[in-house]
Design a protein that fits this description.
mainly alpha; 18 helices; 2 strands; 2% strand; endoplasmic reticulum; GPI-anchor biosynthesis; transferase; membrane
Amino acid sequence: MLVLALWSWHIGRSPRALLAKSWDSDWYTRIAAHGYGRTLHWPDGVVQSDLAFFPLYPGLVRAVTTVLPVTGGTAGLLLSWLAAGAAAWGIYLVGERLYGRPAAVLLVLLWGLLPHSIVLTMAYTEPLMTAFAAWSLYALLTGRWLWAGTLAALAGLSRPNGIAIAAAVLAAAACELWRDRSAPWRVWAGAALAPVGWLSYLLWVGARRGDLVGGYFAVQDGWTSRFDFGIGALRFVREMLRGPTQFGFVMALVITAAGVLLFALLALVERPPLPVLVYTGVLVVITVFGSGFFESKPRFLLPAFPLLLPLALALTKARPRAAIVVIAALAGLSFGYGVYALTLARMAL
């Protein structure tokens, strides 16, 4: 944030405006202020409806502006910063539970130094969803089924890919019930609660659009966002490799490919508990095999913090000098790319 602020002042722009009003942030603050109902029609046929954005974050922004004398952008930033802190705490607890304190500290550090981690300080929903998801995973790992289901439901109200944590809760519950048919009612209750948030918003949008099941997906299709098993993404990459392209697209391709490789290492080498694997796998599948804004794929992987476990564990075994070099390199990349993404790039984040 400091590097971004210094560069923004240097070029005569407002750091707060960049963090609070860029791209999707503007949609969220408008929903908070005026409710749903905004639709943009573009000359190329793209139809962008604000129904694509899940309601929990703008609802919280509205609540903050009702209680405090602040604007929607400031409220959004306060919520994102608090959520990022809660997410870091939850990520630490998950890492400590699985692999001990050194790995947990490095896991949080690496997550905060991802090239696109500037999003964690913006009025975006990734910090909020990651916080709910991390704490839901921790609740699963410690046998707190009701908490796991409730937090998964809240994650599902935060973002479309919040379904990933609901899938993790359902998979863990199914495994528990398979091992013990007399499992307590809390297992059933947690499993029932987990998808409620995600499903309720999809059905509400469907009812509003006159198509209960397909209404929300039609809205996403208007944004050119759909699950097509990667066909759209492959076409985009093919066109990108044929000629000059923007640096942000190249970074998106590299980061997404790195995410796939890290997931393979996580699944085949580290072999984490089932809910952690399912949560991460669903996020990777949604990101890799979905089409739409290719440059946003790294952002979609931000909640997939377990992808960093192989690297965190490797750094715990590395020499201190090597670990410092890796962390310093990531910090430099993160600082530079965050500034580029918000002040120089001509693409959505």
